Automatic annotation (TrEMBL):
PANTHER family assigned: NEUROPATHY TARGET ESTERASE/SWISS CHEESE D.MELANOGASTER (PTHR14226), NTE FAMILY PROTEIN RSSA (PTHR14226:SF76)
Organism: Sphingobacterium griseoflavum
Pfam family, one: Patatin
Active site: 45 (nucleophile), 159 (proton acceptor)
Protein's UniProt name: Phospholipase
Keywords, sorted A to Z: Hydrolase, Lipid degradation, Lipid metabolism
Amino acid sequence: MQNFETPEKISLVLGSGGARGLTHIGVIQYLVAHGYEIDEVVGCSIGALVGAAYACNRVQQLGDWMKTLTKAQVFKLMDFTNPRYGLLKGERVLTILQDVFEDVLIEDLPFKYTAVATDLEREEEVLFMDGSIYSAIRASIAIPGVFKGVLQGNRFLVDGGVLNPLPLNHVSKRGNTVIAVNLDGFPTKEEGFVAKLNPVGLLQESFYAMRRRLSTLSLAYYQPDYTITIPHDAAGVWDFHRSKELIDLGYALAEKALQV
């Protein structure tokens, strides 16, 4: 294992993956505790949310709030709507988050921040590098069929992870050391488990396999300096009640990957 020498500047790429993204908080806590300077954050979905909290100097508060959530409280955050547009509006979560950090203009942040969403009709990525940080988060976390998509002009925006679960291609500060947090690591499940799944489980695992391939291709092509990999089965999409465990896992895996 190579030792990681503290770089002058870090570009941090935070991938998508639901509650597994709480590990992003632990990774950031490790970097801050060891004196690394995060100069750029590129995130999609949960990565865009956690990256925004850090950019607003409130990632510790976000972690503390997440740790208070029980299964019942997670359910209460779900603002159900007309299923034609998605099961959830996604507004209640953002309203609660305003107690953690306020909406600000991205261009006023202390470093470069990019949130990635997907224009589903045009099948292309949409970058948020200015304007309301809450608007950026809302578009980037809009999981199709779960959260209501966002209409922006003539665009219909959904989760950035649809096309790009680990958006390494949007790092702009090429002189920086790049650290990627990949939430689509290979699961630790026993061999042969797929044969035991029902049709819904098979569909789900097929989708996960596709995501893993997209992330693997992105890592191979853009080759970040360091990758922190979170096993795909570390948590389910909605396991936010396991926040403490997942934050601690992110810290531990960052320490393992970036040994100083």
